Amino acid sequence: MKQQSQTAPREEALSALFDNEVNELEARRLLRDMTDHDATRLGHWQLARDVMQRHAVAPVPEDFSARISAAVADEKQPRQWALPLARVAVAASVALATVVGWQYWDSNAANTAPALASSQQRPLLLGEGELVSRSLREQAQPAALVSGHQRIDDMIVRHSDFAARHGSQGLAPYARFISLEAQKEQQ
Amino acid sequence: MWLRSLGAALLCLAVQLAPVRAEEISAPHLLKQMADAARLLEYRGRLLYMHGSEVTTLELLHARIDDREHERLTQLEGALAEVIRRGEHVVCVHADQSITRLVNRSSVTPLGLHERLSNSLPVQYRLQLDGEDRVAGRAAYRMQLLPMDQFRYGYRLWTDQASHLLLKSELVDLSGRALERIEFVSLDLEPGLTVDDFVVPAALKERALDSLDASEPAHGRVQVVTGWLPEGFMEADRDVRLSGGERRPVAAATFSDGLAAFTLFVEEPGEGKPEGVSKIGPTIAISRVIGSAGGDWLVTLVGEVPQLTGERVLADLSLEANSD
User: What is the spatial distance between Cα B310 and Cα B315, in angstroms, rounded to a whole number?
Assistant: First the structure.
C-alpha cells in the first residue's frame, strides 16, 4: 500500500514531464532523480501515444534508453540559466532528450514524414511528437543559446515584423514583441 | 479630450444596425467580416496577452486617418513598450526608450492584417464554426482553424457578433493546448481618435536595423536554399541588415503558409553565438551551424512553428555562395 502511494505521484510527475507541463524546477528535480526504469517507461508512453495517434512508428532504437541516460547525465551538469529565454528551455530539452519522436532519429525515418503527413485526410486534433530531436547531443544544450539572447531578441523583433506583414496573424506578432520587452525589463 | 469623429461613428452605427441573419452565419463569411472590421473600424480597447505564465496588459488603438490605417499597441504595466503603425511605417518603442523603425519595403503589399486570410484560406487549414461564446462582455462567435498536418499550429478565433471584430485568438498546439492567447477585456467602438493619438514618443536613441545598400558587396554573400518546407510554405520576404555591435551583416528570409511564418537568419558564427534551441511563448529559436563551400555559417530559425518543423527545415537546408 505504502509503495503504491509513493508510486502514484511519481507516475503523475513523469506524466507531466512527458507532456512538457512541468516548470523548470520540477523538471530539474525529475531529471536528477530519473532512473533507468523511468526512462524506459517514458519510451513506452511515447510509443503508446504514437500508436494511438496513428503516427509513423519506427522500431525503437536499441540504444534508446542509453541515449536518454546520456542526455539526463548531461542535464545533471550544473549550468547557468538565464531568464527569460531559458525559462522553457529546461522543460523543452527534457522532453527532447527523454521521450519524443524517436521515429525521427535518423534522416531516413525523417524522410518518410511528409508523405505520411500529406496522406492525412482530416485535420489533426491531437498531440504529436513536436519536440523532435535529430540528435540528443545537440538537443541537450538548449540553454547555451541564451547567452546571446540580445541577438535572438533582435531576430524576434525582425521576425515579428515579417510575420505581421505576411502571416495574417493579426496583432499577435506585435504583442509578442511587446511581451518580450516587458520581460526583459523585469530582469 | 477625445473628439468624436462623425464619420467613424456613422460607420460603427451602420455596422451595428446591419442585422446578422442566421442563414448568413458561416465561418468563411465571418472571417471576411472580421478582416473588413479590423481594417475599417475605429476602436480602442484593453487586451490581455498571455503565453505560459506570462501575462501582459496592452492597450490597442485603431483608426483610419487620411485613408491610412493607424494602430498603436501599448504595454500598460511596467516599462513602456509599444508598436505604432502609421500606414506601412511601423515603429517599435523598446523598454529602454530606444526605438526601431521598421521601414517600408517595396516588396510589401499593404494587406490588412486579416485580409489575406479571409481572401484565401491556406489549404493546409480547415475552418469551422464552433458555437457562440462571450468575450469582453460581448456576444461572440467561436471558430477553429485546424491544421491539416503536424507541421503547423492551429488557431481558435472569437469574433464580435455586433461589430465582427476579432475579440480573442489562441494559437493552439496539436494537443489542443493554447500556446498564446490575446483577448480584449474591454472595447470601445467610438473612441474618437485623432492623429495625435499615434504620435511616436521622443526616443533616447534609435536602434539600427539598417538595410544594406544593394550595391554593397556583402549583400547576399550566401543564399539560403531550402531542401524541405512544410506543404504550402513559400518564401515571403528577404533582406540583409546590419546587426550587433560589430555591424555584421545578417541575412534573413521569411517563409509563410499564409498564416504561420518563420524566418531564417544567416550570420557568421562566432563567440557567444552557440548552437541550441530556445522557446519564448509560441516562438521557437533554433540555431545550427551549417557548412557551405565558402565555410561555416550560423543559421537561426525563428518562428511560430512546432520544433519538428524547424528542425526538419534546418536539417535539409543548404547554403549557396552568390556568384557576384
Answer: 9
Q: In what order do the strands lie in the sheet with B82-86?
A: B125-135, B138-147, B154-160, B166-172, B178-188, B43-51, B54-65, B68-75, B82-86, B89-93, B98-102, B205-206
CB contact under 8 A, A162 and B259: no
Residues 258-317 of B with CB under 8 A from A: 258-263, 265, 272-283, 285, 287-288, 300, 302-304, 306-308, 311-312, 315
Q: Beta B98-102 vs B205-206: how paired, if at all?
A: parallel
Q: What is the CATH architecture assignment of B6-198?
A: Clam (2.50)
**Of B289 and B238, the one with more pLDDT:** B289
CB B266, CB B319: distance < 8 Å? yes
Q: Under a CB-based contact definition with an 8 Å cutoff, are residues A142 and B276 in contact?
A: yes
ipTM beyond cut 0.85: no
**Could you tell me the maximum CA-CA distance found in chain A, to the nearest angstrom?**
60
Q: Which three cell numbers stand for residue A185?
A: 525589463
C-alpha to C-alpha distance for A164 and B305, rounded to whole angstroms? 15
SS3 of residue A26 by DSSP: helix
Under CATH, what is the fold of the domain B208-321?
Answer: Phosphorylase Kinase; domain 1 (3.30.200)
C-alpha cell at B42: 475605429
Q: CB of B146 within 8 A of CB of A138?
A: no
B165 to chain A, closest Cα gap in Å: 11
B161-210 pLDDT per residue, tens: 999 999 999 989 888 888 889 899 999 999 999 999 999 888 767 765 55
Q: Do B275 and A144 touch (CB under 8 A)?
A: yes
Tell whether B104 lies on the interface with A, counting CB pairs under 8 A. Answer: no
Q: With a cut of 60, say whether residue A146 has pLDDT above it.
A: no
Label residue B211 by pLDDT band (50, 70, 90): very low
Q: Name the residue among B60, B244, B256 with its Cβ closest to that of A166.
A: B256
Residues in chain B: 324
Helix (H) or strand (E) holding B64: strand B54-65
Instruction: Please state, as a whole number, how many other Cβ atoms lie within 10 Å of the Cβ of residue B135.
Output: 18
Cite the DSSP H helix spans in chain B.
6-17, 27-40, 115-119, 307-315
Query: Which chain B residues have a beta carbon less than 8 Å from that of A87?
Result: 52, 280
